[in-house]
Amino acid sequence: MSSHSIAERGYLPNEKFDDDGRVKRTGTWKSASAHIITAVIGSGVLSLAWCFAQLGWIAGTITLALFSVITMFTSILLTDCYRSPDPVTGKRNYTYMDAVKANLGTLQYKLCGIAQYGVLTGITIGYTTTTAISMAAINKSNCFHKHGHQADCSVHNNSFMVIFAVIQIILSQVPNFHKLSPLSVIAAIMSFTYSLIGIGLSIAKIIDEGIGETSITGRPIDKDFSGMEKMWKTFSALGDVAFAYSFCFVLIEIQDTLKSSPPENKQMKIATAIGIAASTVFYMLCGVLGYAAFGNDAPGNFLTGFGFYDPFWLIDIANICIVIHLLGAYQVLAQPFFGFVENWSKKKWPQNKLITNEFSICGTDFNVFRLTWRTTYVIVTTIIAMIFPFFNDFVGLLGAGTFWPLSVYFPIELYMSQAKIRKYSFTWIWMQILSLACLIVSLVAAVGSTRGLITSVQSFEPFQSVS
């Protein structure tokens, strides 16, 4: 069959298959926007008030704005690399790694895989920790309301991590990314809800108690807070902001859910603009109002700073929304890794029936390898979360590790390769300068977060996380 007839076949209104022979994609810029918001507005939003406390009014605002603009720019570059060599009619790249391999070669393809799936694994570990903290907060809130403010309502987080893991094992059996749109829509709604609750509580606190002790440069240096400590916290805060905007590593996978007409890159650019713009508005409100409410003593998770007493039910709703949102966000980030391992295994052992055979149970596709592998992944990440349940520093390290390679370097290199940007041209030079500047930011953020993690580990016993 000619390529022309295949293309025509892919665009017939009642056709079941796309131009590449795969089941017809049905996603739109609306569903892609939901996926992006689900991936972007995650646990990172909870630490932004703390980031402002380290950076101050000026640096905090500028940092958020810069990361927003850079992420928007590089994401739009990446949308044109879903198809190669032409962004509209070229061959599809189903994953981020496929796009790198098609444009940059095998070596960078392997490096991208290490970075992408390492980061995805790390974020799912972080989401396990964050969800457990929110579930524990609900338990504590209800305990204080029932037994009084003086009651001992401390609780171990491990049991909540196990509950979260059991739910994820069930959700992980969804065969592929394309079937997650309803879950992403619900998760996106939840992320808006708890962000709005945090904003509302911040405003109420400001009205009731006034603006907290803030400054242009953030938390001041004093006898209890040295200049060196200020520097480390500032570096860690940069990592937290970088993490808050990280989603490029699943952009191609999200774009692969879009239907073919209008062209995927045009739809994805709209979705990217909407997703990042909406996220930035909420980030700025949460960061600014959270800092104004708590001042230089802003907690790492600003929702926990409002206490568990009054109004306890509103704090409960916010934390329930976090739990529901991260249930979906975990899958949005884990599914690309699941798919990569399963596709690689099928190519490696095509005759192995445990890997290739699909069974239908109650109308649902079932595969022995998929069940075993995905269950094992969830269990392992949960155990790691129990060993290292550190929120801020872990988030900062993930952000530092994610931002430059996956959100800046590869998108820029992919675009310049596909668009055939001439070496040492004006465009090439300023893009390299941008990449180098972002690399420096990522390195200092990684150093600050690593130092914080080392400090936390020295005073912590594994499996003993308590809220």
TrEMBL record:
Primary localization: membrane
Location of the protein in the cell: Membrane
Classification via Pfam families: Aa_trans
Superkingdom of the source species: Eukaryota
A Gene Ontology cellular-component term: membrane
Sequence ranges assigned to domain Amino acid transporter transmembrane in this UniProt record: 25-454
Keywords: Amino-acid transport, Membrane, Transmembrane, Transmembrane helix, Transport
One biological process term in Gene Ontology: amino acid transmembrane transport
Record-level Gene Ontology MF annotations: amino acid transmembrane transporter activity
Membrane spanning stretches: 32-50, 56-78, 117-138, 158-178, 185-207, 273-294, 314-338, 371-391, 428-448
Protein name in UniProt: Amino acid transporter transmembrane domain-containing protein
Organism in which the protein naturally occurs: Lactuca sativa
Classification lineage: Eukaryota, Viridiplantae, Streptophyta, Embryophyta, Tracheophyta
